[in-house]
Amino acid sequence: MSYRLTQNEADAVFAELLKKFDIYAPHRHVCAGRYSDDDIVKYDKVESLSDVEYKKKSDYPMKEVISPIQQALFYFTEDEYRESKVSSRPILIFARPCDINAQKIQARIYAGNGGFTDSYYERMKDRVKYILMDCEGGDDNCFCVSMHTNKTDNYSLAVKFHEDGSLFVKVKDQDFDNYFQEIKEIEFEPEFVNKNELKVTVPVIKDHETLNKLKAHPMWNEFNSRCISCGACTIACSTCTCFTTKDIIYGDNPEVGERRRIESSCQVDGYTTVAGGISYRKTAGEKMRFKMLHKFHDYKERFVDSDMCVGCGRCTARCPQFISITTTLDKMSKAIEEIEKGEV
Amino acid sequence: MENIVQPKPYKISEVRHETDLEYTFRFDTDIKVNHGQFLMLSIPKIGEVPISVSDQGDGWLEFTIRKVGKVTNVIFEKVAGDVMFLRGPYGNGWPMDKFQGKHLIVIAGGTGVSPVRSTLNFCARNEGFVKDVSLICGFKGCNCILFKSDLEKWQNNFKHTWLCLDNEDKEGFCRGFVTNYIKELPLNEYEDNYEIIVVGPPVMMKYVGLELIKNGFSEEKIWMSFERKMSCGVGKCGHCRIDEYYVCTDGPVFPYKIAKNLVD
Fold this sequence. Notes:
The complex is a heterodimer of chains A (344) and B (264).
Chain A: E1 2-5, H1 7-20, E2 22-29, E3 40-45, H2 63-66, E4 70-77, E5 80-83, E6 91-95, H3 97-110, H4 119-125, E7 128-133, E8 157-161, E9 167-171, E10 185-186, H5 208-215, H6 222-226, H7 232-236, E11 243-249, E12 257-263, H8 284-303, H9 314-318, H10 325-340
Parallel strand pairs in A: 2-6, 6-7, 7-8
Antiparallel strand pairs in A: 1-9, 1-10, 2-3, 4-5, 4-12, 8-9, 11-12
Chain B: E1 8-17, E2 22-28, E3 38-43, E4 47-57, E5 60-66, H1 70-75, E6 83-90, H2 96-99, E7 103-109, H3 114-125, E8 132-139, H4 148-157, E9 160-165, E10 174-175, H5 187-190, E11 194-199, H6 202-214, E12 222-225, E13 241-242, E14 245-246, E15 253-255, H7 256-259
Parallel strand pairs in B: 7-8, 7-11, 8-9, 9-10, 11-12
Antiparallel strand pairs in B: 1-2, 1-6, 2-5, 3-4, 3-6, 4-5, 12-15, 13-14
């Protein structure tokens, strides 16, 4: 069932929802961006509908709500590791299809890969329901249509914000019916983006020989001088899951502390360094090759039904060196063509 | 829901100094492991490291650890009676069912001897599990020799044994890399009924693989164990991934036909 809510009605429903749920949404932080007078939009716990930034795609992905950039796993004393706890309150997240679809990809790694399910991911994921946000095609970095992540039916509510402050809502999950009892029904269905400015084709790597030739292709050398291996792309990525575990001790009592999980990046130095100092993939080009092939080959080889990218374009937007993932993907396609023609 | 990264305390019952840099720690524990699996060893305030089981028995596990990093430096301060934290076991381990009844060839170098020591001791203790063992075992120099009493036992129990030192001379040891002795393995004697374990530093494993193929051994029968950085050991943190494989859950043991294609 669908409704059109006036601003007051929408605020009232939101206030009711807040009684039961922690609500997260993209939120604009004024002048907190990386340049002077530049805002940043990222996911935050919100207290009113006016806190929701619905026009601009968030600079950082929705995954931060479910798999935070850092979290305590255990608190320890000399002889005990005690698991950290989280609230059991259910969570509602305002999200676009790309971010919702990204969770399918994250879940395949956190929940099940190698036969193990991560309880820290599960304890968050199990609390989450989505409010699908209307998306009118994103920005000039978006390519969700190419990645087939422009649509989803994984939502409880779908909303469209109107300029006059009113809100179109579709209630898909009957658990939410009672929030709208006093409101008159209308016809409303969420619309999905069906065209982006950017279009990409993910190349097919047909065999191991082609893959190994692509790994050795000179195309990756470009990144040795361009990429600064800062990892901004992976932090901004909707799907990246890698983390490092780090123990920290409290200043007042060095016998007590916590084991934290901190988001990590295959792009930064030390990611592969084992005790004794041996490390693998030392150059920026090798690291870029590893990331690109994970996104557009290795993940699909393992999990079969999708690549590890939802086309949100945040990596391109956040790169301080203006490296575009779609251009890099095009370069990969060209390199594969050269390999198949026997030119390399 | 079970927390898969929860470390649990176990008591160290014995610490043996193998070399100045390598100690073997024995823990009292009922954890059951397959030969070639690893556990995460954990010290509050410092961190966690994946370490292969270097031997096992009823109610105990041993780990042979090289003092090379932040965590292992602290582990080396531990003495018998101290408590440390373990979680696991993880990984696949050696395919013992494939080894049973065959000639087993083991080529190991340096600390790489640790992940295969429990298999070698199992074969030595259980005569008849494999037909026989051919061992090529190499260390850098006299100061790096591990498991001295085991080496002696293996030399007496196994059909063929080559102990080598890369560039030093010592009684009972040949001089040179393990790769130099592959051509001395009696391929005909194995009658196509053999399996090969290779474990050691990455460069060593690469050249041992090539040398084995050059000498007519079948790539289908070669198994290699990998070592990579790991934060979780359970397929989540991503550090150990190579191509579509996770060393922690798909490995650390890989058949050569996969291992030879893995490019980090």
